[in-house]
Amino acid sequence: MILLDANYxxxxxxxxxxxxxxxxxxxxxxxNEEKMISKLVIAELINVLYTKxxxxxxxxxxxxxxxxxxxxxxxxxxxxxxxxxxxxSSKKRLPFFDYAIITLMEDLEIKEIATFNKHFDNIDxxxxxx
Length: 130
Hints:
- The chain has 130 residues and is of the alpha/beta class.
- The protein is built from six helices and five strands, in the order βααβααβααββ.
């Protein structure tokens, strides 16, 4: 099982992204593993593609359809309270989305994540695939 982060998916599908080639290489490495993505990550992904990167709507729709067909989608709303508690007890300042991912991974005992966020390297029990 491997969790996919928004920045990884963006790099995988958007050829102009700096890490596109690395994302494609990672996909080759993890092609036989169960790939999981949370609804919160999908929301972040679509938001960044649409508002920040201004990606064509047809590509966004294609990405979303492929995610629905190819990956296990995790219902993650139940971890919001735990995520806020984790933020309150942590000395690190990470984005809410990243704390939610960490909380979800701990809860589901997922050990690996495909991401280009290096701060995941410093989280006990999590291995960043790269």
